[in-house]
UniProtKB/TrEMBL annotation:
It comes from Nitrosomonas halophila. GO terms for molecular function: endopeptidase activity; serine-type peptidase activity. Residues 92-160 form the PDZ domain. SMART domains: PDZ, TSPc. Gene3D superfamilies: 2-enoyl-CoA Hydratase, Chain A, domain 1, 2.30.42.10, 3.30.750.44. Residues 393-421, 433-445 have a biased composition (Basic and acidic residues). The keyword Lyase does not apply. This is Carboxyl-terminal processing protease. GO terms for biological process: proteolysis; signal transduction. GO terms for cellular component: outer membrane-bounded periplasmic space.
């Protein structure tokens, strides 16, 4: 046994060293980071190899080396923050498909917390959204299988499946004494990135549900259509980013560039390596993915100057916060609604070969005025009490192992509400009629009504547009 453990230890340490060389991190890291990588923590690796050896020799049933190594990589990344992860072949492929706006499943974004699956956000116009699943819900069972003990990857795979097949989720929700049971039907999730309409002549409404590959182009088409449809010159625009979980960085830059002066700073990033330090500006080189035509070039000239309101809530995250922060800092738009989610970290996809990759947090986002978005979010110019009270209770700062703000000391952690017991019974069916999701942009959308009223006041008093709004 001792010889076996010794051999295993030597093999494992050698294998780790080989992996570090093959990843070639030194090619992108600064000298200090290269020096750190060249100093392997031998004592910790020896302990790791001993665990590896014990599992191989003593575990109740045989375990393949590949599974152990894969799970070790998973654990290494999951232990960093809620957004770093190992992507196997299937997950890597689905990530690429998802940015194009079509994928299979329920339409729900989740994370893992305390061994349970926690809902970050249901995606608009999907089975999960229509069923009434909410941010902060804890999924304790998928069909008849308990989630406790699953990895996040396993749980996601169980929730995905062929379209038109049924699935049952058992959920614990704050404020409910008993678990709720949701019966959903899987579907091909086709996300319409940009929606638009004329609220009334001269007043346009544009909603971005997610930042995808063609969001910038779709936005340009929507703006052009609004101008064509309006019987009078456009007077004001509402940009709705509520419950938009984010997406592609270049698309966030494109959306910002549609409304900002040419070459205005949209966002900058700070990280440990030179590649993680970027300044992204309102110029085609920062938002075009190829050398194609600039889809923003022919927009109406006054789209850069007409009064504008940007709507946000607790579900506005990542790319949404970048856009809201850029428009706010440049005093281009009044931001209205509730404090945003606070997801201000950069995840870089690093391919590893064999169609796998790691999603690694490499930097933090900062608004043009130098405010870190991470674990704080964007504070609206006009806080809306109803939006705030109904807004999402879960934010980045509530997630386990969340990255700190970077510039501001987090002296007091966000106090989490006590979770309801996951063992309560019996279950009760969720009554969809009692809690239907409000449709953004509808006649019942009080925040949109308030935004249009405020736009009209801006037109009457244009100097308000360039100052910090109060209310």
């Amino acid at each position: 046994m001792r010889n076996f453990m010794k051999k295993t230890s030597l093999i494992f340490v050698g294998m780790v060293a080989g992996i570090m060389v093959s990843l070639n991190f030194s090619a992108i890291a600064d000298k200090q980071i290269r020096d750190e990588l060249h100093t392997l923590p031998i004592e910790e690796l020896r302990a790791f190899s001993q665990v590896f050896g014990r599992i191989k020799s003593d575990y109740v049933e045989p375990v393949e080396d590949k599974k152990l190594i894969t799970e070790a990589i998973n654990g290494m990344l999951v232990g960093l923050d809620p957004h770093s992860a190992f992507l196997d072949t299937e997950e890597y492929k689905e990530l690429q498909i998802g940015t194009q706006g079509e994928f299979g499943g329920l339409g729900i974004q989740v994370t893992m917390e305390d061994g349970l699956v926690k809902v970050i956000s249901p995606i608009e116009d999907t089975p999960a959204f229509r069923a009434g699943i909410k941010t902060g819900d804890l999924i304790i069972k998928i069909d008849n299988t308990a989630v406790k003990g699953m990895t996040l990857s396993d749980a996601i795979k169980r929730m995905r499946g062929k379209p038109d097949t049924s699935i049952e989720l058992t959920i614990v929700r704050e404020g409910e004494t008993d678990p709720l049971m949701f019966e959903l039907v899987r579907a091909i999730i086709k996300i319409e990135s940009v929606k638009s309409k004329l609220v009334e002549p001269g007043y346009g409404y544009v909603r971005i549900t997610q930042f995808q590959e063609r969001t910038g182009e779709n936005l340009a088409e929507a703006i052009t259509k609004l101008y064509q449809e309006s019987e009078i010159p456009m007077k004001g625009l509402v940009l709705d980013l509520r419950s938009d979980p984010g997406g592609l960085l270049n698309s966030a830059v494109a959306v910002s560039a549609a409304f900002l002066p040419s070459d205005a700073l949209v966002v900058y990033t700070e990280g440990r390596t030179s590649d993680a330090k970027m300044q992204l500006r309102a110029s085609p080189e920062y938002y075009l993915r190829s050398s194609g035509r600039d889809f923003l070039a022919n927009l109406p000239a006054d789209i850069k100057t007409i009064p504008m309101i940007t709507l946000v809530d607790g579900g506005s995250a990542s790319a949404s916060e970048i856009v809201a922060g850029a428009l706010q800092d440049h005093k281009r738009s009044v931001v209205m609604g509730a404090q945003t989610f606070g997801k201000g970290s950069v995840q870089t996809i690093l391919p590893l070969g064999n169609n796998t990759a790691i999603k690694l947090t490499t930097a933090r986002y900062y608004t043009p005025n130098g405010q870190s978005i991470q674990a704080k979010g964007i504070t609206p110019d006009i806080l809306d009490e109803e939006t705030s009270s109904n807004s999402r209770l879960l934010r980045e700062a509530d997630l386990s192992r969340h990255l700190s703000n970077g510039k501001e000391d987090e002296k007091t952690a966000t106090k989490k509400a006590d979770k309801p017991s996951a063992s309560k019974s019996p279950k009760k069916k969720h009554d969809k009629k009692k809690e239907g999701p409000m449709e953004f942009g509808s006649s019942d959308d009080h925040l949109l009504v308030r935004a249009i009223d405020h736009l009209k006041s801006l037109i009457q008093q244009p100097e308000i547009q360039t100052s910090k709004a109060q209310g």
